[in-house]
């Protein structure tokens, strides 16, 4: 149940019997030949697909995140860590004030991980609140599926290339790009990161058969749904 497709009367009625919701986190950053909104598209869709049979509300993805290392790629937008932490805390406060108590954060961007302590601090200050932080693409079963299909997978490669993140009419390279080790990215500014990774793909083939990505997506959705259905006590 998308919040964007609901009215407040329906949410008030829902809260009479359930207090769960999902907050997707995304970003606006380069993904080589894919959409700049890949992380937001994927986090909101995996959340929506997981929540649909349960009727749990899914809030719109936060479309901006922490991505200073990609600021040499036009179209990328990065927030300061302090700004992002305050934004997330304000959103969680609002959810709590209106009646939500069990909140699943579905994160679609690895750079957002530094805000995880905010959720723990927030729970300490809000009686009865539970907040889970879920990196959907690297959850155990989902990541195992990635490794089984093709272990040379990374940012902007096939593992983020779905029908809903592709841009019509754009041709993709058909070779496997050599993998860029993450440790070579950690001590570089944004311009040097762009020089190192070129088109933005960290390594791997750009696209695999839809049968592979459909299998990966089904596992990701199931694993996300299990967190909604699991023990919140």
From TrEMBL:
Keywords tagged on the record: Hydrolase, Metal-binding, Zinc
UniProt superkingdom: Bacteria
UniProt cross-references to SUPFAM superfamilies, sorted A to Z: Creatininase
Single GO molecular function: hydrolase activity, acting on carbon-nitrogen (but not peptide) bonds, in linear amides
A GO BP annotation: riboflavin biosynthetic process
The protein's required cofactors: Zn(2+)
Pfam families hit by this protein: Creatininase
Keyword Transmembrane helix attached: no
PANTHER family in the cross-refs: 2-AMINO-5-FORMYLAMINO-6-RIBOSYLAMINOPYRIMIDIN-4(3H)-ONE 5'-MONOPHOSPHATE DEFORMYLASE, 3-DEHYDRO-SCYLLO-INOSOSE HYDROLASE
Record family assignment: Belongs to the creatininase superfamily.
Protein name: Creatininase family protein
Source species: Pukyongiella litopenaei
